[in-house]
Amino acid sequence: MKKVAITVMKIARHDDLIGQYENPIQNACDMQVGQSFLANGWEKPKGLCDSAWETLSPFVMTLACGGTDIYRGWMKNPKSAMISCNDGFRPVSFLLEATEIDAD
After folding, report:
1. Where do the structural domains in the chain lie, given as residue ranges?
2. Residue 102: pLDDT band by 50, 70, 90 thresholds?
3. Distance CA 53, CA 45 (A)
4. What is the distance between the alpha carbons of residues 104 and 97, in angstroms, rounded to a whole number?
5. Which residues, 6+ apart, have CB-to-CB distance to 26 below 8 Å?
6. Are 31 and 58 in contact (CB under 8 A)?
7. pLDDT at residue 10 is higher than 80
């Protein structure tokens, strides 16, 4: 099994939806563009949002176990995937890339 690099590529914010539907909250998302993590199998990387991990983990495991071309030709690099978290108000796009580093 290989480790998988997870990089925050983009953070969107839908203020119209936030204003209309979301209760006021603080620190809804602490991710920052360029922030990166290294996933070791099913172990959530420290500092990665729990909700994001729930979305990303199946794709991380697929790549960690040698899976490629998850969406048949969608990605230029078949050992990668672009996945967004499930936050409908401020979705974060993550680039997942299988590394050559073996998981512990």
Report:
1. 2-102
2. confident
3. 9
4. 17
5. none
6. no
7. yes
Q: What is the DSSP string of the chain?
A: -EEEEEEEEEE---HHHHHHHPPP-S-S----TT-EEEEBTTBPPTTS-HHHHHHHHHHHHHHHTT---TTSS-SSSTTEEEEE-S-SSS-EEEEEEEEEEEP-
| Residue of higher predicted confidence among 72 and 28 | 72
Which two tokens mark 8? Answer: 């925050």
Q: For residue 78, name the pLDDT band (cuts at 50, 70, 90).
A: very high
Please tell me the distance from the alpha carbon of residue 99 to that of residue 36, in angstroms, as a whole number: 13
> Which residue has tokens 């790549």?
63
